[in-house]
Amino acid sequence: MRVAEIARLTGTTVRTVRYYHKQGLLPVPEERGGWRDYDISHVARLSRIRWLVQAGVPLKSIARILDSPTDEVVSTDAAVLDDLSGALAVIEEHLTEVTRQRDMLASLLERAREGLTVSPMPPRMVAFFDRLEAEAPDERTRAAVRRDRDLVDVACYSGHMPPEAQYLFPGPNDGEDADALVAYGQDTDSLTDSQVEAQAAKNIARFERTLGPRRCRELADSVDAAAIAPLFKLFAHLGAGGARLAGEMERQLTEAIARWRATP
User: Fold this and answer.
1) d(Cα 170, Cα 178) in Å, to the nearest integer?
2) Domain chopping of the chain, boundaries
3) 3-54 domain in CATH 1.10.1660.10?
4) Which of 30, 45, 62, 177 is deepest in the core (most CB within 10 A)?
5) 110-155 pLDDT, tens digit each
6) Over the stretch 187-198, which tens digit does the pLDDT of each residue have?
7) What is the distance in angstroms between the CA of the first residue and the CA of the last residue of the chain?
């Protein structure tokens, strides 16, 4: 049979058949009447190659599998087992990434359908910054809100922002937007240490009040306290005048987690 026929029988293309010849995977048949004449052995080997390719086995590994002593797909040869294990690991890694992308797209689609901003920032945070930008009394305050929003956005995009952190931000019914606007309108460098401590304590108290004792204990048991540091270091690095507040928030939140864990 000619090359077009073997390609059709095995579900591939003439170009691919010739590529396998070039790679040494498929023997080149003898010519008859000026044409390469493929027989059933070529069909079987090409079918085996295609089957392994569809399983995700790299071509260089396929060559080793096909050239094993028994010329069988299943082999106990150590190199073959390593090749198959490696191919499976690559597929599993790819599957994990594809699953993550699927979940992200599903979440973004849901947000878009609800008319929310297409970003990884939790809706509660988005709503908070939207309200404050709209209600800011002057451009200086609005700029401070936007700067903080960009900072939180960076933390969300980089994966440093845990979902529970959204409860550090006031909800629409908390009645704290006015206080938040006052804080954004202040020169953070001029705040005293006691004012910084009080602001951090207020945020932690809101967090505890919103989640409640049971959820705080559950969070404390599941959270990696060491993972908190990168988030606040990011805030301190990018937040300019908010570095002191970020440091105080980290300290108080770490203490709160220890306290929640100790609560029966």
Assistant:
1) 11
2) 3-54, 119-262
3) yes
4) 62
5) 878 887 777 788 888 888 999 999 999 999 899 988 988 888 888 8
6) 777 778 898 899
7) 79
